[in-house]
Amino acid sequence: MSEEFCKVKNRIQKIVLMVVFLLTLTPLPLSAQATISEEPDFPEIKSDYVYMVDLDNNQIMLDEGSEQTIYPASMTKMMTLLVAIENAPALESTMVLGPEVFAGLAEAHASVAGFKPGEEVSVKDLLYGLFLPSGADAAQALALEEAGSEAAFVELMNEKAAALGMSGTHFVNTSGLHDPDHYTTLRDLEKLMRYALENPTFREIFQTRRYTANPSLHPGGLVWESTLFAKLTTGPENEANATITANTSRIVNDSIIGGKTGYTNPAGLCLASIAEKNGTRYLLITAHAPVSNTPYHILDAAHIYDYFYEYYARQTVLTADQILLETKVPFVLFNNKLSLSAGSDIVLNLPKTLDLSTLLIETELDQDLQAPISEGQRLGTVKISRTDTETPTVLKELELVSPRSYKRSALLYGFYQFQQWVKNNTIFFALSVLGLILCLILLRDYRREQRRYQSARKKRRRRPHL
């Protein structure tokens, strides 16, 4: 029996080694700026904060401190104008300006439109008087008329800011007079401008160069020129852009179509503007240029616009049918192929001399890919970046969505779950398999010994007695 036991022991050792080897083959779980201002031809600018986007494809063209807290100065009046328009009665309705409209304005050295106490003025004239000459008197009048007090009107401004997602913004007055608790960011102002420019009345006033109001105590009317366009001229065709002409002291620029200036000593010179040329529209906000008789804020905008219109052009970097990701969806029994594409041509504003092969296109899934997947479900993102600069710059980020639904196979998913259980319970599974094999071997050997014993017994019975 000892010899037989040794044979059984050797067989068990071989089986254990085989089990360990097979366990190692168990399948694993299925898985799933550099800033443009660094470029050699970019103009020298004075503003500390600059933010520029392409209005048509939402591409960020330039970003210098767009999320830094700034004082908006009279750029505040963009929100004042928007809230006044949305809460105003008919534009042709009129009101009489009481002395409370003008209280404290002279002491604060606020800019005014030139209205007089006791004057009857239309809402439309007040809106233009608020924006073009940056009139704090018009701001006060609109606030009193529409909300009862400036404080109540400011509440409406802050409510609107919250509704637009301007999380870094807080207003305390309607005109932008300096207050430490009156602040915003360039990105927040972009949100405001994008929304407000969809309003036809806002857009018309924002782009107006000159306007004549007809309040009751000004028989000849009040003529206002935009604080922005007062410093601009399209100039002769042969005159260089973004220069101040000697005879008019105006900046030559043929692309800026609207904007709002701002100025206080803490805020510096500020400007929010839009430009359009050759079918391309830009939005640009600059802040904290040095306070000076030289309009650095407008010069900066003119230089930046001229630079982009001269050196940049729209180029197709992805076609609608270009495959960005091709894979198989786990746990799908049939037709499990998944192909993701942009869905439409992706056109970006890029340097005219840029080699498109230097662009980096990275596809990243949100999580391990597996069924079930519904049609239109977000699966990840694709990032398009420039790599020809010292610091890679993300130019565009797109969502990747599933073109159709994928149902999960219960059979494949059940097998996967079993694999997971085996992986997470390796020792228990190995011992269970080993124990089962040992039991089978012992049972086999027991039956074999039983047969030998019974066979020997029969032979002894058949042996004749002497």
From TrEMBL:
Residues that bind substrate: 260
Single GO BP term: cell wall organization
Superkingdom to which the source organism belongs: Bacteria
Keywords on record: Carboxypeptidase, Cell shape, Cell wall biogenesis/degradation, Hydrolase, Membrane, Peptidoglycan synthesis, Protease, Signal, Transmembrane, Transmembrane helix
Pfam family, one: Peptidase_S11
Catalytic activity entry: Preferential cleavage: (Ac)2-L-Lys-D-Ala-|-D-Ala. Also transpeptidation of peptidyl-alanyl moieties that are N-acyl substituents of D-alanine
Function: Removes C-terminal D-alanyl residues from sugar-peptide cell wall precursors.
Family affiliation: Belongs to the peptidase S11 family.
Protein name per the record: serine-type D-Ala-D-Ala carboxypeptidase
Lineage of source species: Bacteria, Bacillati, Bacillota, Erysipelotrichia, Erysipelotrichales
